[in-house]
Design brief:
single chain, 508 residues, alpha/beta, Serine Threonine Protein Phosphatase 5, Tetratricopeptide repeat, DNA Cyclobutane Dipyrimidine Photolyase, subunit A, domain 3, 21 helices, 6 strands, globular
């Protein structure tokens, strides 16, 4: 039996094939946790390589035919490939960064590498096209395929149901988080691994599926322009990759975290973390974020809120559980409760081949997955007269009468993000300006997933569906269009927030 420090709850065996002990190598298929640090999947693959005394081969591939593929998304991922190439070269692992030059050109690469492998390890990410891709691969590879969850502080399958409110989920994770903080991923699993040297890839494989060129990895615009992807969505100024992610994390913890609670909602303050793109693409682990905050706050696990009998108190309170500063606790509410609540919905609500969908009506990307009360009130007001109706083209171009909304859309176009508070308003106005709530959902998904670096993610879907009532409750008074779904207006936002510098930067 393999000796591995990865918790069993984070590992799923996806087929009935055996481990081939006489294979040439252990293959880590890096598809979501695109980093070498705080990565349970890489840690598991290294454990297999040591157990079987075989070299480690790492395949990080990037398709060009996925929906919304663009210069923006490709550049961010490829930045990470360049970082990973340097890290794996220093550790002695064979790393193969493959960027598909044409739709379907990469077909067969995984099979060719798996044909010579002892075992295949990959990442468990429950959103976008990845679950279908892994399920298909599991049916085809001739050896055991293991999928490892490195998504959050909680294993995505720590729960046995889908939670429908933030408070109910918070009560759950406060009860169990201590045991999961006792099983952390290695900060640097490659450090001191002493891997067996790997031979170069067979010539036929390397010729048919060559590694990404130095020009492409180095950021050459011409190399990116040659790929068959959407060139109308340009790269953003910020760089992708684990190195940039670590630098952004260090700046946030030292400069912005102390004022996060008081200033995060004000766009002019610049107190947001800026970490969501790196978390989405797997360039940064939630565990690494937590570790950085814990060091700054001098956190100890024995300080978690406890009842008088020594048991953790599952009160569901947003404050005081961690024994940290109010700003740190406010940020961890976002990192743990709200981020992992989305993963809970996707892991258990739209599971591929893992039994029944637990406590959920439909796939969490479907309109019908909204709570009954929200569906009912939106249906009741579906025919209400809209003061304005904008096409998706007008919205994408930030061509509305609303200066604040236009600014948030321009930020999305330029930076690949929207300020946290304004993203909520952005969605509420799209609901107000769309012919039906269902069409509003389609527009939000399309604009977010096309332009946002952190789109196509359980957390971003949570935010979009929150606009329509998910994880929320009915609010009065009942209004046209919204019914009892929470209402937001640009007028109230302008009164509440500091926006002068933000509007000067982004408003047209």
């Amino acid at each position: 039996m393999i000796s591995s420090s990865v918790p069993d709850l984070r590992i799923r065996t996806r087929n009935a094939m055996p481990v081939r002990e006489g294979g040439d190598h252990v293959l880590y298929w890096m598809i979501a946790s695109r980093r070498t640090r705080h990565n349970f999947g890489l840690e598991r693959a290294i454990a297999w390589a040591k157990e079987l005394d075989r070299p480690l081969v790492v395949l990080e591939a990037l398709r060009c035919g996925y929906r919304w593929a663009s210069d923006r998304l490709h550049r961010f991922v490829i930045d990470g490939m360049a970082d990973n190439a340097r890290r794996f070269a220093a550790a002695g692992a064979l790393y193969h960064p493959y960027v598909e030059p044409a739709d379907g050109a990469g077909k067969g690469l995984l099979g060719a590498l798996a044909a010579r492998a002892c075992v295949v390890v990959t990442d468990d990410y429950p959103c976008f096209f990845l679950p279908r891709m892994v399920a298909s691969a599991a049916r085809q590879v001739p050896v055991r395929l293991e999928q490892v969850d490195s998504n959050g502080l909680l294993p995505v399958r720590a729960a046995d149901r889908v939670f429908t409110t933030a408070r109910s989920f918070r009560i759950f994770w406060q009860r169990v988080i201590g045991e999961h903080l006792a099983a952390l991923p290695a900060a640097d699993p490659l450090g001191g691994a002493r891997l067996r040297p790997a031979a170069p890839l067979p010539r036929a494989i390397a010729r048919r599926w060559p590694a990404a060129s130095p020009a492409l990895l180095g950021g050459d615009p011409a190399a990116l322009a040659a790929l068959p992807i959407d060139h109308a969505v340009p790269p953003v100024p910020r760089r992708g990759g684990p190195q940039a992610a670590g630098e952004e994390l260090a700046r946030f913890v030292s400069e912005r975290l102390p004022r996060y609670l008081d200033e995060r909602d004000h766009p002019d303050a610049g107190a947001a973390s800026g970490l969501s793109p790196y978390l989405h693409f797997g360039h940064l682990a939630a565990h690494e974020v937590f570790a950085a905050i814990a060091r700054r706050e001098r956190f100890r696990r024995d300080r978690l809120a406890r009842a008088g009998d020594g048991e953790r108190r599952p009160s569901g309170s947003r404050e005081g559980f961690w024994g940290m500063s109010p700003s740190a606790e406010a940020f961890l509410e976002q990192l743990v409760t709200w981020r992992e609540l989305g993963f809970n919905a996707f892991a258990l609500g739209a599971a591929e081949g893992d039994g029944p969908r637990l406590s959920w009506k439909r796939d969490p990307t479907d309109y019908e997955s909204l709570p009954d009360w929200a569906l009912a009130t939106l249906r009741k007001h579906e025919r209400d007269r809209r003061p304005r109706v904008y096409s998706i083209e007008a919205l994408a171009a930030a061509a509305t009468y609303d200066r604040i909304w236009n600014a948030s859309q321009v930020e999305l176009l330029r930076e690949g993000r929207i300020h946290n508070y304004l993203r909520m308003l952005w969605g509420k106005k799209i609901l107000e300006w769309s012919p039906t709530p269902r069409q509003a959902l389609e527009v939000m998904v399309e604009l977010n997933n096309r332009y946002a670096l952190d789109g196509r993610d359980p957390n971003s879907y949570s935010g979009i569906f929150w606009v329509l009532g998910r994880y929320d409750r009915a609010w009065g008074p009942e209004r046209e269009i919204f019914g009892t779904v929470r209402y937001m207006s640009s007028e109230n936002t302008a009164r509440k927030l500091h926006l002068k510098e933000y509007l000067a930067r982004y408003a047209r």
